[in-house]
Design brief:
This protein is mainly β and 230 residues long. The protein is 11% helix and 49% strand. It has 2 domains: 38 residues; 181 residues, Jelly Rolls (Sandwich), CATH 2.60.120.560.
Length: 230
């Protein structure tokens, strides 16, 4: 266009109108996302919410020798003193479909402790779990006695917050199927049994704790359960 000729007024108005529509659209999208438009659907209404700051009598805490698990600093804390220690917090699960979600992070020690959720728990040798760690690794599996079925083998996955970032781990269970998510992104889908207890699981790193690093600590901020109304 010749620089000596002014831009037509209609073209300026069209450009201004288009820019305004784009700005309004971005603002509307941000508003919707802040209210959960992007959240995958859950199994039903919120059944309960636990932040480990009140009555915990419905919970059972199970740990390996040398590990500790209990409330502290407004959350649930797991502390480890040796490799491959376990800490589990368990409570009753719904009879049918459900959505379980937890928020956790590692707050002390060399990064590498795994943490996440547990469901379909029958005993320490029969349960299902979805775990992540601050090095960007994730896994999902079903333990049935000596046999382990790996739904998602232990490997790096891009949608995990690294270091001490808080990650949300979620599982949707229904009609014999489960969908595991990390920070709302699908990790894996698989066939599963649903019956059993639910809760949180943490595991210390497999390597020996580095001298001077201190105990490894994992913190669970909250656990939420959704299920259909009776």
């Amino acid at each position: 266009m010749d620089s000596h000729h002014p831009v037509p007024l209609w073209l300026w108005r069209l450009a201004t109108w288009g820019f305004g529509v784009a700005v309004v659209g971005v603002i509307g999208l941000a508003w919707g996302l802040s209210r959960g438009w992007a959240d995958p659907p859950r199994a039903g209404p919120l059944l309960w919410y636990e932040n480990f700051q009140g009555d915990l009598t419905r919970w059972e805490f199970i740990t390996s020798n040398g590990a500790a698990l209990g409330p502290g600093e407004g959350a649930l804390r797991a502390e480890f003193t040796a490799p491959e220690q376990l800490a589990m917090g368990l409570t009753s699960g719904p009879a049918g479909d459900f959505t379980l979600e937890i928020a956790g992070t590692q707050t002390a020690g060399d990064i590498g402790a795994a943490y996440g959720l547990i469901f379909a728990w029958q005993d320490e040798a029969h349960y299902s779990a979805v775990l992540v760690n601050g090095n960007g690794y994730a896994e999902a599996y079903r333990q049935a006695g000596a046999e382990r079925t790996s739904w998602f083998a232990w490997q790096q996955w891009p949608n995990i917050l690294l270091g001490t970032g808080s990650n949300r781990v979620r599982v949707d269970v229904g009609a014999g199927q489960m969908i595991a998510r990390v920070n709302d992104e699908v990790l894996v889908e698989a066939e599963t049994d649903a019956e059993g207890r639910v809760g949180v699981l943490a595991r210390s790193p497999s390597a020996s704790l580095r001298a001077g690093s201190g105990p490894s600590r994992v913190v669970f901020s909250w656990v939420q359960m959704w299920a259909p109304s009776p």
